[in-house]
Design brief:
With about 550 residues, the chain is of the alpha/beta class. It contains 17 helices and 15 strands. The radius of gyration is 27 Å and the shape is elongated. It starts with 11 loop residues before the first helix and ends with a strand.
């Protein structure tokens, strides 16, 4: 059951090509590291490449927006790396074997693997609907039992784990990590307090559980296996667990240390090593995973003889009235429920509207501000496209390097992915573009003027695309979000039909104004307004958006 170590293929010419493709702006990228409590320059382990592992879902039930916030946050991080010219290997796991999955499946009369697959598909649908790029690899825990068993054997052989035996000396299936044997335990969550905390990390430490502040954690209930009296030390945690009497037979695996199933933390150590080898650039996840999950993961990975991630990044919570959004607390909003009232673009914008380390308060105002942002974005893109006679192709938008984007946008994202600053840069460009559009009819050098508008249009769309929000990209185009007709469930056919009907009304209104029949023109405008459609008159004609 030994894992095969694939040889590294180091080709000097390909490395040189990768480095050449990286934008100059990449040299200024600074990111926070949970372990050091500091923002520092990012330097990739391999030139031109970035390896990221982000903890995915435990597929026990439907996704809520608290889950998806982390996915959107790290999707933006990944997209910025790609815009900087890095080749990104992005791994996001699926935890498809877990106490909660087993218990909820049993209560619902389901097979555990059936329930896991149903909700894995729901998560995938939510990711796709909200424009989260598919991972390079998306491994399931159940597909990597051999990797986990081998890793546990290495930890035991290195003197950092122990097998619990029965009165006859036979292995019980319980294996624990020996925390006392590992002097580095607690470094991620600052048990040793060797780093000076800044204001942001103090908030994170206060709200996120740590070694010093575990207690009765309502967000991370203690694994029953970790309550065992067989542990040598209260801090020890399960690497492998003997099955409960209620566990089905097909949720048990035979190992040298007894029949059972993996502890919660071991899967991520095994899978990050399988797909990213030894040390990789970034390990990401939600703030609530810092302890015990990531602290334990870091310890067991290094105790097995492998380097852990070079940098740990954690996204903060979505809160409702100051309380973390959580299924266990009964205040979770499912993604499908939110999408019945808001377009996917608006929900994506709202989830990514603040820097990843900032708590995101979820409210009607948050969504209203996101809808207003959509209206401003779509209105400018439509007007600018009409003015220059075309929309730049997706190929052109994707090819824009970070070095060619506005400096304030680049500076914001290079400052630990400050999306608030990046959004401000986008709307600064839109205001400038609107000013150019308002003067376009008066410009003698109309071709030059149109070129200026087109440049702004390309920049705006490329900046939006970096945040996953270009309205003319998938999935927004297929969902009808690009034309201003986006509502939950809107599709291209509906948009086309509505656009045709409104355009006919706008043509009739234009004829009425030309004939100086202003009463008729106003009546058409008022009727469209009553139907929820806003009309904006420009030198190039009238455009419409949904209110």
């Amino acid at each position: 059951m030994t894992n095969t170590q694939e040889p590294q293929n180091i080709n000097i010419s390909s490395v040189a090509t990768a480095v050449d493709a990286v934008a100059s702006a990449a040299a200024d990228l600074k990111l926070y590291d949970t372990a050091s409590h500091a923002v520092s320059n990012f330097k990739p382990i391999k030139p031109g490449q970035v390896g990221m592992y982000v903890c995915g879902a435990t597929v026990q039930s439907s996704p809520h927006i608290g889950h998806i916030r982390a996915a959107v946050a790290f999707d933006v991080v990944r997209r910025w790396f790609e815009r900087l010219g890095y080749k990104v290997t992005f791994v996001r796991n699926v935890t498809d074997i877990d106490d909660k999955i087993l218990d909820k499946a049993s209560a619902a009369g389901q097979q555990w693997w059936e329930r896991a697959y149903i909700y894995e598909r729901e998560f995938t649908e939510a990711y796709n609907t909200l424009g989260v790029e598919p991972p390079t690899y998306e491994p399931r825990a159940t597909g990597h039992m051999i990797d986990m068993i081998d890793l546990i054997k290495q930890i035991i052989d290195n003197g950092h784990g122990y097998v619990v035996t029965d009165e006859n000396g036979n292995p019980t299936g319980n294996v624990y990590f020996d925390v006392a044997s590992w002097p580095h335990y607690g470094e991620l969550t600052h048990q040793k307090q060797t780093a000076v905390a800044d204001a942001a990390s103090e908030v994170a430490d206060a709200m996120g559980p740590s070694v010093d502040n575990a207690g009765n954690d309502k967000y991370n209930p203690v694994d029953p296996a970790d309550m065992s009296e067989d542990k040598h030390d209260p801090r020890d945690f399960a690497l492998w667990k003997a099955p409960k009497d209620s566990d089905p037979l097909d949720a048990r695996w035979n190992t040298p240390f007894g029949t059972g199933r993996p502890g919660w933390h071991i899967e991520c150590s095994a899978m990050s090593h399988r797909y990213l080898k030894d040390m990789f650039d970034i390990h990401g996840g939600g703030l609530d995973l810092r302890f015990p999950h990531h602290e334990n993961e870091m310890a067991q990975t290094r105790a097995a003889g492998y380097d852990s991630a070079a940098r740990w990044m954690h996204s903060a919570w979505v809160t409702a009235k100051g309380e973390k959004m959580s299924k266990s607390l009964g205040n979770g909003l499912s993604v499908p429920a939110v999408l019945t009232q808001n377009s996917a673009w608006v929900v994506r914008y709202a989830l990514g509207s603040v820097q990843y380390r900032s708590m995101l308060e979820w409210s009607d105002q948050t969504l209203a501000e996101a809808q207003s942002a959509y209206d401003r974005v779509s209105n400018f893109i439509e007007r600018a496209g009409a003015a220059v006679g075309e929309q730049p192709s997706r190929e052109e938008i994707v090819s824009i390097s970070a070095d060619d984007l506005p400096a304030d946008f680049v500076a914001a994202l290079n400052d630990d992915i400050n999306v608030s600053g990046a959004s401000a840069a986008i709307f600064t460009a839109i205001r400038f573009g609107n000013t150019l559009l308002s003067k376009l009819a008066d410009r003698v050098d109309s071709d030059i003027a149109k070129g200026e508008v087109r440049t702004v249009l390309v920049n705006v769309r490329a900046m939006l695309d970096t945040l996953g929000l270009d309205p003319l990209a998938e999935p927004w185009v297929s969902e009808g979000a690009a034309g201003g007709t986006a509502g939950a469930g809107a599709d291209s056919a509906e948009h086309t039909a509505l656009d045709r009907l409104v355009s006919e009304q706008l043509e009739e209104r234009a004829e009425a104004r030309k004939a100086k029949d202003f009463a008729r023109a106003d009546a058409i405008r008022d009727a469209l307004g009553a139907a929820g459609i806003t009309i904006e008159d420009t030198p190039q004609g009238s455009t419409w958006t949904l209110k």
